[in-house]
């Protein structure tokens, strides 16, 4: 597995490495470092199943109507809003850590993105100064630039197919091959103008950021006693590759693009997803709804 990761990162084809005696099989043990499981694995479909079932005596999501009626083992990203009181970040981080969760980001003013189970959500809500716990929605995850680009892109393809409306419709009722080619060129120009990278195969590149883990500790006492924040910006390579596999498979189905693919970038906490422009809207919607997408 590690040889495959190294080869992919270097742009080489991975070579087959046969498993010998004493080499662990590919599975959960390879996802753990020092016997400590990274909470972000719970965001993947490859997560462990809840062996204990949906036990009513165990903690569930604190806001069933918004976070979902999930089992006690379910993991998600959610938001925690606080009153900004001094030391609140340290108290929140400590409560989350004790419940197996972690802070993944800061949102002005005095709010945080978090990853964890229902127990972590309940622990966050119980912290003094926390005023709200709720979901990190697809809208929160999706860049606002798509709100402008995707409707324009849809109109470009509607015109190319001869189904445009209003002043874009013209007198045509059926698109021709020439119209389709013109629409494809116009789509590429539109995306390029919007700073969307187009690869050599004509696919748009969508960057998906995976959630970092933020370590928050007490201040060093030097001037104001502010919290000390350290960000772990590197997602484990195996987790990045698992995310890329899931993203690629999901986009192939959602965008009806059998050639769609994804490239993990562990050093930058991202996965690059390549999809044809005509399937871009469906791909962005699917990726924005995935639990492992931070933004």
Brief digest:
By secondary structure, the protein is α+β, with helices and mostly antiparallel strands. The protein is about 35% helix and about 20% strand. The protein contains 9 helices and 11 strands.
Q: Portion of residues in helices?
A: 25-40%
Number of helical stretches of at least 4 residues: 9
Q: What would CATH call the architecture of the domain at 64-136? A: 2-Layer Sandwich
Q: What's the shape?
A: elongated
Element-by-element helix/strand order = HEEHEHEEHEHHHEEEHEEH
Span between N and C termini? 27 Å
Please outline the helices and strands:
Layout: H1 2-9, E1 32-33, E2 36-37, H2 64-67, E3 76-82, H3 88-98, E4 102-107, E5 111-116, H4 118-125, E6 130-135, H5 138-141, H6 145-160, H7 177-193, E7 204-209, E8 213-217, E9 228-232, H8 237-254, E10 261-265, E11 270-275, H9 280-289
Antiparallel strand pairs: 1-2, 3-5, 3-6, 4-5, 7-11, 8-9, 10-11
Helix pairs in contact: 3-4, 6-7, 8-9
Biased composition (Basic and acidic residues): 30-57
Region (Disordered): 1-57
Task: Write up what this structure looks like.
This protein is 33% helix and 19% strand. The protein has 295 residues and is an alpha+beta fold. Among the domains are: 2-37, no CATH class; 64-136, Alpha-Beta Plaits (2-Layer Sandwich). It has a 4-stranded antiparallel β-sheet. It has a 3-stranded antiparallel β-sheet with strand order 7-11-10, with helices on one face. Strand 10 (261-265) and strand 11 (270-275) form a beta hairpin. Helix 3 (88-98) runs antiparallel to helix 4. The longest helix is centred in the last third of the chain and has 18 residues, at 237-254. It is elongated.
